[in-house]
Amino acid sequence: MIARKNTFVFEKRPYTQTSTPEEIEAIRQSVWVEEKGFIWLKELPIMSPFSINTMFDQIEILVQQFEENIFLVDLRGSEKPNAIVRKTLYQRFNKITNIKHTTFCTGKNFLINTVIRFVMFQTQVPSYTVCTTMEEALQSIKSINE
Fold first, then answer.
1. CB of 130 within 8 A of CB of 107?
2. In terms of CB atoms within 10 Å, which end of the chain has fewer, N or C?
């Protein structure tokens, strides 16, 4: 399992409704099915309600293919989300009912680790893990699938 290469390079800014069609498509392509029931999400450097909603619109399409889904959320290049983005995140997580587990890969970003726990506490997601390396994250997903 290797992260798909996205040739689009996101700027370190929030993307909004005024984003170009190319930018919007690149945001959508930041979410993909790695294998059956395993959805990978590569978060943007700076999250916005628009980028979160665009990604979760794509997630809602993808999760319909499988009875249960496991997410890997790669946050290694992302900044801590603001309060509006956090609210959007837990609202969107709560709309998806067939999430079995979510694994977050954060690098060594203590602030994002704290935000994850705050956001996930408010969701209906049954379990999650926070990992600092991609190797740990992939091992976490492998153990959930066994």
1. no
2. C
0.85 exceeded by the pTM? yes
String of DSSP letters for the chain = --PPP------SS---TT--HHHHHHHHTTEEEEETTEEEEE--SS--HHHHHHHHHHHHHHHTTSSSEEEEEE-TT-PPP-HHHHHHHHHHHHH---EEEEEEE-TT-HHHHHHHHHHHHTS--S-EEEESSHHHHHHHHHHHH-
Which residues share a beta bridge with 105? 74, 131
What is the rounded CA–CA span in Å between residue 15 and residue 45? 10
43 close to 109: Cβ distance less than 8 angstroms: no
Strand partners, 80: none
Residue in the structure block whose two tokens are 């726990």: 117
Which candidate, 122, 40, 124, places its Cα nearest to that of 76?
40
